[in-house]
Every structure is written in C-alpha cells, then in structure tokens.
Amino acid sequence: MRFDIITVLPELLESPLNHSIMKRAKDKGLLEVHLHHLRDYAPGKHRQVDDYQFGGGAGMVMKPEPLSACIEKLLAERPYDEVIYMTPDGKRLDQEIGNRLSMKGNLMVLCGHYKGVDERIRQKYVTLEISIGDYVLSGGELAAAVLVDVVGRLIPGVLNDETSALFDSFQDNLLAPPVYTRPAVWEGMAVPEVLLSGNDKLIDEWRHDQSVRRTRERRPDIWEKYAGSEEE
Ligand code: 6GU
Asked: Which ligand 1 atom lies nearest to the CA of residue 139?
C-alpha cells in the first residue's frame, strides 16, 4: 500500500513514520510513504502557498494553484483509491474507517494549514475528509501520521501473532482487558490468579468479562454498539 502525503512541513512526518511497526511495514515492502513538499509546486521566488481570505477575517488560506499542481502530477502517475483531506470538520477517524482504508492500494493525503485549503480544491479533488477528534491541531501533519499508523498496522502481513490487531481495543467494539507481566507480585499488588492458572478457557472468559466491564463503565457509546451487534 502506498501513501502520498502533500505537506508544507514534511519534517513533522518523518520521525513518526520511521520507527517501530511503521518502519517494519516499510522494511517488509508492505507500506510506502512518499512525502511531497508543497512549496516545490509554488512558483516565484517566495514560493507562496497561502494568501489572505476573500471577505476578510484573520488567518490565511492555502492557495489552490500549488495544491492543484502537486495533485495533478500525482494523479497522472497512478490511480488513487481516495484523495483524503485532513481537516477538523471531516468525518471522525475510527477503527472501521481504518479497516476499510487498509484494503486500498494508493491513498493521497492533503495536510491543511492556517485556515485550511481553498474550498474549490475540496470540490474538485477530495473524495474523503478525515478529522482525528474534536480539537484543533496547528496543521494536518500529526493527524496524517495518526492515519498512516492506524491504517498501516492493519495491512495484512504487517503485524505478527504477537502484535495481532485482532485483539486491539475497538476491533470488536470492546475495549481491551487489563494486562500484566512479571513480577507476579509488585508493591504488594498481585496479578489476578486466573492468569497464572494455565487454564486457557477460564482466561479467555475472564478477559472477555473484563473487556465488557471496562467498555460498559468507560465508553457507554461503544457499549451500545457492542450490545446491539450481539443481539443480531
Ligand atoms: Cl485532521 N487537522 C487539524 N488541523 N486539526 C485537527 C484534525 C485535523 N483532526 C482533529 N483536529
């Protein structure tokens, strides 16, 4: 799977996408991430990518021409499954969107800055708008890094048994159960006995029960989805 990310701050994306599981996905040849510096597509000595907004008001808007030049160049090179715009007014990213995007081949991602991109870029090119939550970031780069991580780890073959996504929180609309490692007693606190029992069936039941409790207590919104899906 291939990501092409258009940004004015490629430095912000380099580190988060070159460690741990993302690095392994790239090393295995399962994930490619190409960063495109928007300024390279802006003409003139000043390589201007933003301008004042029509109608007045504080804050700059990203100009359509450099974005269009970069997008058109990429579109001419390969077909894209989605052209994604990272924006706080997009659809809120969740595991379901991550699962769906992990089946795709080529994704283009635009990172917004300032007040965002000229609306006509959204009309002409963007097929999917994604937000990572109800708060405002200074730019779309950190959100894009989150998106690539969420999607990248779901690409078949990226995770092994040990890191399997099947048991992640949210994957079945339940939060993950508590986990423990050695020592069995730490600061007077003992690991739940069932986990030391060696009885796989009891352990599975305990974990499921803990997941259900946690979800009901902490995330009634997710619990509703789970309870609904169990009824079917
Ligand atoms: Cl995708 N971009 C920005 N700038 N802020 C955000 C966001 C995206 N998602 C949540 N806040």
From this structure: 4
